[in-house]
Amino acid sequence: MAFDINLLTVLVMAAFGGICAYLANQNIAVFNDGIRPMYGPYINGEIDRKTLFASSFALSFGLVVGFGIPTSIAGRIIIVHAIMLACDIFGAMFKDTKTGALGATVVGALFGVILMFGMEAVMRLFALLPINFLGSLSTVGGLIIVLFCVFPAIAVAYQTNALTGLIVLVLTMLVKQLTSLFGKFTAGDVNVVLNADGMALLFSIVAMVFVAVRASKKSTGGGAAAAFAVFEKNIDRIKKNILLLAVSGGIVALATTLLLVAEGPASLTLTAEGKYSEAAIVSLGRCLGFIPLVMTTAIISGVYSPAGTKAVHVPAILFINLGIMGLVGSFVTGALIMVIEVLLLGFIAKGLDRFPGMKELGDNTRTAMSKILDISLLVGGMLAANAIAPTIGYIWVVGLHFLNQNSKKPVSSMAIGPIGAISMGIIVNVLHLIGLFPVAK
């Protein structure tokens, strides 16, 4: 592991999991950008808690199992998705009462600590198996990194038409390719390598916002004032919890500086290798890409993110290895960044008032991301299962996918890929023990 297990890291992970679960339970902040827009209807009484929990589980479970945990184990640092998405589920699982808040907080805190200890235990367990499928399992979430930049093009198609979406898709591919070819340069004594996936995502989100603004200009108007009144109410709701959000931002930053968590796969890898400057730049690129999405869904729903726009990770990475002052500086800086982000929401809302087409982004992005995650995890699960057991793996995951569709109680389609890959790994070990799956020496 890149991190040390000691009293401080145990306390930080407990605080991390506890506050994330508490914020989700009290409808203050959730990490999953796809579930955030659903909190608006819940707060307004349009859906019940069971529906909210079912949606949170469906949108987050597959990512926790298929992307968060395998990526964390492979990278030796916990990727924030593994703990924050799980805490979204824990928060929604309990009723938003005082008793429910206590239950969610305790479960979240325990999960944070168990996850830290569990990573090392799982690695040791897999090492004992005759067929260690951990390396292949990390393939499940690999396509999410590549394909996530596609969702804005789909959202654009929903908002306008397929041709405009196609144009955004082609330009996104072009940006990714150009970044891959020419995204390396030297800044002073530092060799900078731009992350192609991050830059493609940044461009596609900018294009999505641009199209929404254009759609606003063509709008006949009449509903902007009413929309802004709703936005203003949601912003006030978020601002009332600014102190809790500041603490959350500080804890996330502190955990990053302690090498407990990383904001994304690329920065995780660079951080684990000790390339902190490069990791901070990659993290900044992803942050810029998520600013429109996080703030838009927050304004629409009245619910923020416990990590904000992920900007808290950028300085936190640079505070690594700076001792006690670095830890204190990381917490304070993370808290200040969250405060600034919340205070900026009013400015962003005024822009939404001027461009009413932007208010449709919440639903469009949620639907587009769900579709991308569905196919990414399914295909990723197929690739991982096939790597574990060639040809048999494909059959297993595809079979599970269609059997699940015909089941009386189907599980979330997002979970099929991860479940298929993990179960395939267990199956081949059982087959090996009874002599039906020999391994070439």
Number of strands: 4
Beta-strand percent range: under 5%
Number of helices: 19
Query: What is the multimeric organization of the chains shown?
Result: single chain
Low-confidence stretches: 222-227
Task: Describe this structure in a few short sentences.
The protein has 441 residues and is mainly α. The chain has one domain. The protein is built from 19 helices and four strands.
Give a verbal description of the structure:
This protein is mostly helical and 441 residues long. The protein contains 19 helices and four strands. Helix content is 75%, strand content 3%. The strands form two sheets. A two-stranded parallel ribbon has the order 1-4. It has a two-stranded antiparallel sheet with strand order 2-3.
Architecture blueprint of SSEs:
Elements: H1 7-25, H2 36-43, H3 49-75, E1 78-79, H4 80-93, H5 98-128, H6 134-137, H7 142-147, H8 151-159, H9 162-182, E2 184-187, E3 190-193, H10 196-218, H11 224-239, H12 242-257, E4 261-262, H13 265-272, H14 276-301, H15 313-318, H16 323-354, H17 361-388, H18 392-405, H19 413-433
Parallel strand pairs: 1-4
Antiparallel strand pairs: 2-3
Helix pairs in contact: 1-4, 1-5, 1-12, 2-14, 3-4, 3-17, 3-19, 4-5, 8-9, 8-10, 8-17, 9-10, 10-14, 11-14, 11-16, 12-16, 13-14, 17-18, 17-19, 18-19
